[in-house]
TrEMBL record:
<dbReference type="GO" id="GO:0003677">
    <property type="term" value="F:DNA binding"/>
</dbReference>
<dbReference type="Pfam" id="PF13181">
    <property type="entry name" value="TPR_8"/>
</dbReference>
<feature type="domain" description="HTH cro/C1-type">
    <location>
        <begin position="14"/>
        <end position="67"/>
    </location>
</feature>
<dbReference type="InterPro" id="IPR010982">
    <property type="entry name" value="Lambda_DNA-bd_dom_sf"/>
</dbReference>
<protein>
    <submittedName>
        <fullName>Helix-turn-helix domain-containing protein</fullName>
    </submittedName>
</protein>
<dbReference type="InterPro" id="IPR011990">
    <property type="entry name" value="TPR-like_helical_dom_sf"/>
</dbReference>
<dbReference type="InterPro" id="IPR019734">
    <property type="entry name" value="TPR_rpt"/>
</dbReference>
<feature type="region of interest" description="Disordered">
    <location>
        <begin position="429"/>
        <end position="449"/>
    </location>
</feature>
<dbReference type="Pfam" id="PF13424">
    <property type="entry name" value="TPR_12"/>
</dbReference>
<dbReference type="InterPro" id="IPR001387">
    <property type="entry name" value="Cro/C1-type_HTH"/>
</dbReference>
<feature type="compositionally biased region" description="Low complexity">
    <location>
        <begin position="433"/>
        <end position="443"/>
    </location>
</feature>
<dbReference type="Pfam" id="PF13560">
    <property type="entry name" value="HTH_31"/>
</dbReference>
Length: 449
């Protein structure tokens, strides 16, 4: 139980502060309350309302929070200031430095019992883990942040970044269906409940695009991309504005103007969060590039994918950058630039693994197999196809598995290995799905755009 919930603790604090200042109970009470009320409060026999505590705090010359909790107000404000600094570091791409800062901040927030700040530090550590590809650790941080916010009765929009982070960590680990379930369930709850928070919806719609695409739900992916782009915040240079708010907050804090410093920090934190949303906007360019590629407009596809790659490289989001590179390599190959495509694929494969970008690792091996076939290197082609098959089976990407089995079967048949080819074809038939269909349920409720 916190001090705020304990009338006896607050009563003793009020009595001590009043005595320190040489005030009588009448002087503390007037004009809004009676001396008898102050006496009852100091004895711990009444739970003071927030209005009463604000009146008493003003008369005593202390902050409301300090009177209610016993913690000096500057502690939480200083912690929030340092949290925005850690957000800035992460937003500029230095995940390693951000981890060090968030770890220290988490320990301090734990020590003081600051729930909101604990959740912010855990969320930051989770985002650092995503950027670094440390998916298991990231998921634990997101789950912990969700629990902290739930225990604090935070509304659903406030919990969305942690929910979205958990879903993304499952998606990048190849657990597509569960990732979609988490994202769609949250979207449905927000939209049906009238909780149309633009930032929360943007994060969710942008994050569900990748899983939709990999599951073959192209129509849903396209719709989610349109929603995300419509919700995207418009800001000239949020980094500069956020830096200004941080500087102002430092000045206000030095002058003891805690509430104003808090307001300035809140603006800075929001802008840094928007900077992190650049990753999600890059995913929208990625989606557009995919759509153009499917429609045969390869020049525009390459331009969109290079834009996504540039945005992600600026964020130093290594795992996402590697995934976009695979899509770009496919477009380059189709444009006749197979050597450039192969070089790009070999460059990024070291950043991918079965537990870290499994689907794009499989796509890279598939494309390298096709390029090897074109070069008449059937042994290398088969090796790449088999590695891709193993990755896709683990992830359960049925549509891609069927296509890959066809490629492998054709290769084996042309090499005279008919029985092995038949086995590959049979495996593919077992995973055959109609283009663009999945076993997903009804689409979530739509936002009122």
């Amino acid at each position: 139980m916190s001090d705020r919930d304990d009338p006896g603790t607050i009563g003793r604090r009020v009595q001590q502060l009043r005595a320190d200042r040489g005030l009588t109970q009448r002087q503390l009470a007037e004009p809004a309350y009676t001396p008898a009320y102050i006496s009852t409060l100091e004895a711990g026999r009444v739970r003071a309302s927030d209005d009463a505590l604000r009146h008493i705090a003003e008369r005593l010359g202390v902050a409301f929070e300090e009177l209610a909790t016993g913690r000096p107000a500057h502690l939480v404000t200083d912690l929030r200031l340092r949290l925005t600094e850690a957000q800035r570091v992460l937003a500029t791409g230095d995940a390693e430095a951000a981890v060090a800062q968030y770890t220290v901040l988490l320990a301090e927030a734990d020590a003081h019992g600051f729930a909101e700040e604990r959740a912010a530090a855990l969320l930051g550590l989770g985002e650092c883990g995503i950027d670094a590809g440390e998916l298991t650790a990231a998921r634990r941080h997101f789950e912990h942040a969700e629990q902290v916010l739930a225990d604090a009765d935070a509304p659903l929009p406030a919990r969305v970044p942690a929910l979205r982070g958990r879903a993304v960590s499952h998606y990048l680990a190849g657990e597509l269906r569960y990732a979609v379930y988490l994202l769609e369930t949250t979207l449905d709850e927000l939209n049906r409940g009238g909780l149309h928070d633009p930032d929360a919806l943007l994060l969710l719609y942008a994050s569900v695009i990748g899983p939709y695409m990999d599951m073959g739900a192209h129509a849903r992916a396209a719709q989610a991309a349109e929603y995300a782009l419509a919700l995207a915040p418009q800001a000239g240079d949020p980094a500069l504005v956020a830096r200004m708010h941080r500087s102002v907050a430092r000045t206000l804090l030095a002058e003891g103007r805690i509430a104003e410093a808090d307001a300035s920090l809140a603006k800075a934190a929001e802008l840094y969060r928007h900077l992190q949303i650049r990753t999600e906007l890059a995913n929208c360019h990625w989606m557009r590039g995919y759509v153009y590629a499917q429609n045969g407009d390869l020049e525009r596809a390459e331009a969109e994918l290079r834009e996504a790659q540039t945005m992600l490289t600026a964020r130093r989001a290594a795992l996402y950058t590697s995934q976009v590179a695979v899509e770009l390599a496919d477009v380059l190959h189709r444009r006749g630039k197979s050597q450039e495509a192969a070089g790009l694929l070999h460059e990024v494969l070291s950043d991918l693994s079965p537990e870290r970008g499994a689907l794009h690792s499989a796509a890279a091996h598939r494309l390298l197999g096709i390029i090897a076939e074109d070069a008449r290197d059937t042994e290398a082609a088969e090796e790449h196809y088999v590695r891709a098959l193993s990755l896709l089976e683990r992830a359960g990407a049925a549509g891609d598995l069927a296509d890959l089995c066809r490629l492998l079967g054709d290769l084996l048949r042309r090499g005279g290995r008919v029985e092995a080819a038949l086995d590959a074809y049979r495996t593919g038939l077992g995973h055959r799905t109609a283009p663009g269909t999945t076993t997903l349920g009804p689409a979530p409720a739509q936002p009122p755009l």
